[in-house]
Amino acid sequence: MTIETIKKIGVLGSGTMGGGIAQIVAQSGYEVLLYDINTEILQKAFGKISGFINRAVEKGKMTREEADAAIERIITTTHLANMAGCDFIIEAVPEKLELKQTLYEELDTITSPEIIMATNTSTLSVTQIASVTKNPGRVVGMHFFNPVPLMKLVEVIGGAISDETAVQITVEMAKRLGKTPVVTKDVPGFIVNRVARPFYLEALRLLEEGVADHTTIDRLIREGGGFNMGPFELMDLIGLDVNFAASVSVYEAYFHEPRYRPSLLQQRMVESGRLGRKTGRGWYEYGGGEK
Amino acid sequence: MSHVWVIGDGTPAYEIAKLAQSAGHLVFTSFVDEKGNPDELIYEQSQQGFAPFTRQPEANPDVIIEAIIRKSKKLTAWRGYAVELRKSLSDTPMLVSTLSASATEISAWVARTKMVPRQSIIGWATLPPIEHSSAVELLPTQFSNERALGLAKDFFTSLGKEPVIIKDCVGGVLPRVVASLINNAAYALMEGVASAADIDAAMKLGTNYPYGPLEWADKIGLDQVLGILEALCEAYGQDRYQPAPMLRQLVYAGHWGKRTGRGFYEYR
Ligand SMILES: NC(=O)c1ccc[n+]([C@@H]2O[C@H](COP(=O)([O-])OP(=O)(O)OC[C@H]3O[C@@H](n4cnc5c(N)ncnc54)[C@H](O)[C@@H]3O)[C@@H](O)[C@H]2O)c1
């Protein structure tokens, strides 16, 4: 198995992440086999993807011919057995361990044993997903960021028993998809979701202590530190519930490491239903325009 | 133009002295050495920028800025200064760095030595590269008077930094958040999660940070980062802020970052 022999890539799950991944894979010149549970979902996803690609033409980022060719390279399917013809698999189905494990068990019998299967999981252990396959060395993590076409970063995760060559080929694949790969061990939160925790947690502690109000903290982080957004603005954008869940999950996964202790204040905010921009109010209030 | 004294031993002291000088102030610097002795120049870069250490200048300063990076050194240095300063500086605002102790704590030392009235003491906090930040945190204590606070604001405004007032604490907002990020990145590096370059790239590309935490540490000075974490440990308990052993090892080895040619990265 080498990177050059890869022509056709299977993408499992056509949601937020799978759709974005299918788009960049097709735009990078690969054939895409996009799989989901029913044709309705697939049709919707296909419509979205071709919409994004067509918009790129309007913005002058791509020629009409390139766009048409990219769209033509995407084939959808509801039959997992069709993955047999793929040379590389990227999985982006919902974040449930049993669901992913069942899928990998099936894929293990369908695909040829040397092709790489890469999971886009954010919080699960790549090693645990790989463990259900007969050849776990070929299972790696390939963690994209949302929105996939815009975010340059891909974390490539070598599980405890992943083959080094599988990791290296996945790194090369990420580059061919126009991304900047970084290699990380299979630890909870990988790099970004782990290292970023104190950005929120420390800001919440400062607020709890009354060192400054949230507006002042955001301002000091932006104007003093040069960050694009302050922690409270960013929590509102991400969704307080999603951000809180990430903190709890990292805290649990590291066996209650005190550095990751979640914030009670944030928990109360989540309980109150002020979840950020998506509910019109979080740390800040958002005008009628936003949902 | 005013007379500014900068007392310190790390990157923040150097940067603030340089900024004050380019803003047209007459700057006198006094750097403390490893043992906390004042009067001895250990800071290489000061030779390139402004006049190296001057003995206590004849004229009284209009403002004194302190940025000594470790609490132990700070205490010793302040004792050293006490004798000289108490003579004639009763009204001079004294801006003390809260990166290694809160302004209230420093006020307590100072009150004991009777060197200056604690009304003149105001905490200040920010992080290198100070040149790039447009806001500076000011941390008045319950004793600080309006006059000192006003002069502190004027001084930072003269450097083009907007002063933002917060409650006195150890660290301040930006230093606490960034030191915690750096510490967490140092643990990840120590545990072999990824290389320093990959950790930094991930944080810049994945979350849009202005610098990767490890390269930022090299700019701030690992000695200063450790100073912040140690002060936080003392104030809040050991668990959350326990410095990564790797960070300590680098500091012991003299790899303090950019200014020593090596920190998490090597520089030539
Ligand atoms: N949304 C993000 O910001 C983000 C970022 C990085 C990684 N991830 C990870 O990516 C994965 C997918 O997340 P998402 O946000 O795209 O979710 P999503 O809900 O938008 O999409 C999931 C898709 O999988 C399909 N699906 C459900 N059951 C399936 C099955 N048995 N087989 C195949 N497809 C099935 C759904 O129909 C849906 O289209 C998760 O592991 C998630 O943790 C998400």
Write the layout of secondary structure elements.
The complex is a heterodimer of chains A (291) and B (268).
Chain A: E1 8-12, H1 16-27, E2 31-35, H2 39-58, H3 64-72, E3 74-77, E4 88-91, H4 97-110, E5 116-119, H5 126-130, E6 139-144, E7 153-158, H6 164-176, E8 180-185, H7 192-195, H8 197-209, H9 214-224, H10 231-238, H11 240-253, H12 264-272
Parallel strand pairs in A: 1-2, 1-4, 2-3, 4-5, 5-6, 7-8
Antiparallel strand pairs in A: 6-7
Chain B: E1 3-8, H1 11-22, E2 26-31, E3 63-67, H2 71-85, E4 94-97, H3 103-113, E5 121-125, E6 135-140, H4 146-158, E7 162-165, H5 173-190, H6 196-207, H7 213-220, H8 222-236, H9 238-241, H10 245-252
Parallel strand pairs in B: 1-2, 1-3, 3-4, 4-5, 6-7
Antiparallel strand pairs in B: 5-6
Bound molecules: nicotinamide-adenine-dinucleotide.
Nicotinamide-adenine-dinucleotide (NAD) binds next to helix 1 and helix 4 of chain A.
End-to-end C-alpha gap of chain A: 48 Å
Q: What is the CATH architecture term of the largest domain in chain A?
A: 3-Layer(aba) Sandwich
Envelope shape of chain B: globular
CATH-defined superfamily of the largest domain in chain A = NAD(P)-binding Rossmann-like Domain
Oligomer: heterodimer
Helix content of chain A: 40-55%
Rg result of chain A = 21 Å
**What does the largest sheet of chain A look like?**
8 strands, mixed
CATH architecture of the largest domain in chain B: 3-Layer(aba) Sandwich
CATH class of the largest domain in chain A: Alpha Beta
CATH homologous superfamily heading of the largest domain in chain B: NAD(P)-binding Rossmann-like Domain
Q: State mean pLDDT of chain A (0 to 100 scale).
A: 96
Number of strands of chain B: 7
Stretches of chain A where pLDDT falls below 50 for ≥5 residues? Answer: none
What would CATH call the class of the largest domain in chain B?
Alpha Beta
Q: Write the H/E string of chain B, N to C.
A: EHEEHEHEEHEHHHHHH
Q: What is the count of helical runs of chain A? A: 12
Structural class of chain B: alpha/beta
